Amino acid sequence: MNGGRPARVLVAEDDTEISGPLVRALQREGYEVALVSDGPTALAGGMSGTADLLVLDLGLPGMDGLDVCRALRARGSALPVLVLTARTGTGDLVVGLDAGADDYVAKPFRLPELLARVRVQLRRAGTGPQDVVAVGSLVLDDRSRRVTVDGDEVVLTPKEYELLRLLVQHVGEVVTREVIMREVWHTEWLGATKTLDMHVSTLRRKLGDAGAMITTLRGVGLRLERREV
Asked: Which residues make Cβ contacts (< 8 Å) with residue 124, sequence separation at least 6?
């Protein structure tokens, strides 16, 4: 978090097969994500002051990623830069680091590794998302994936945890059924949500009194209320 807002990640990647899943994964982590697909736009976005991290592909049209990185540093930008590259030779890595990159992820990459490196860079910059979030008596610790209510641990299934985590990330806001099905179950909503309804019911029961903070907006979605129970 930075001033109470989600960290903002600028992704510069022209391959849609990479950028699509990457953007969705970052959004699931609670980041605000902007996507650009060429070097000059990446440089402009990096210099705009609106991003907290630049995830930069080296093989961009219009301007090579290394030149983008060099230009950022030459203009005095301290924006953290995480490079995505298929160039994994030692010489290539040295050139990239000398150009001002903060870290490298080799293609093809595993999303968990990339997301971990994103967290490291944002944490170093002081803009990473909160690992521990308290909403009333409910505390969610994303480092250990533990949930407690009034200090007592609540054991959740992976899907229950992801559902609660999504609601916590958007506390006070309505999260639509479409978004929930896409982000938690990785599927498009087709109207029937019995699975979701069952998980909400079980989650409320497991959370006890804190479960009352989860409000259902019939036909729309869910909202986690920030209130004491």
From this structure: 80
How far is Cα 152 from Cα 166, in angstroms, rounded to an integer?
21
**Residues 6+ positions from 166 with CB-CB distance below 8 Å:** 28, 175, 179, 180, 183, 184
98: tokens are: 């000398």
Q: What is the pLDDT of residue 15?
A: 93
Residue 130, Cα to own-chain centre: how many angstroms?
11
Contact present, 188 and 177 (Cβ < 8 Å): no
* pTM exceeds cut of 0.85: no
69-78, 92-101, 195-204: least confident range: 92-101
Residues 6+ apart with CB under 8 A from 92: 85
CATH of the domain at 210: 1.10.10.10
Q: Is the dihedral of CA 62, 64, 69, 75 positive or negative?
A: negative
Domain range enclosing 74: 8-125
Same domain for 120 and 147, yes or no, is: no
Secondary structure (3-state) at 43: helix
Distance CA 152, CA 49 (A): 42
Residue whose token pair is 């944490």: 123
Locate tokens 């909160």: which residue? 130
Element (H, E) at 222: strand 221-224
